[in-house]
Amino acid sequence: MKGLLYSGLTALLLTTATAATAQQANRVQAEIAQSEPSSMIFNFSAPIITNSGLLGSTQFIRVAVIGMTLEDLQIAIPSQMERYDRVRVVDQTGKEVSAKINDSKAQVGITFDQPVAPGGYLQVEFVGVRMTSVNDGILLYGVTGKRVGTRGNIPIGTARIQLPIRG
Fold first, then answer.
1. pLDDT of residue 23
2. Three-class SS string for the chain?
């Protein structure tokens, strides 16, 4: 009888302890869920690359002009790019932005005739691109810019373009 009483009491204590532990774990999970935001909010204070890709034989890089007025952009050209016909810059309305383009094998410099104010985006298009390799690959364009009134370039980011597999 004593053995039966002890085994019943042990089972009751074990069940109570397990239920209390489960309740505590649920409470902790609920507290964590309440403290974590349901969505992420980004607050950018400088220009950033928002998109890049291919449109036929045109490669593009889209830069959101945020937090500062841009005087120019510098874009490092990937080594796989053999040549391109021209560089074109358009704004968010599709209107061509007036700029002086200085290019070399390694870099394209874009100096805007009028500084570009924050609040929109610029799309830099490399029209008529020819590559040294026809195989698939990844192109990386390093992008920097100059803020009005400062010296030196500010890193904006690296645009990544995935080339299609050609057969």
1. 59
2. CHHHHHHHHHHHHHHHHHHHHHHHHHHHHHHHHHHCCCCCCCCCCCCEEEEEEEECCEEEEEEEECCCCEEEEEEECCCCEEECCEEEEEECCCCECCEEEEECCCEEEEEEEEEECCCEEEEEEEECCEECCCCCCEEEEEEEEEECCCCCCEEEEEEEEECCCCC
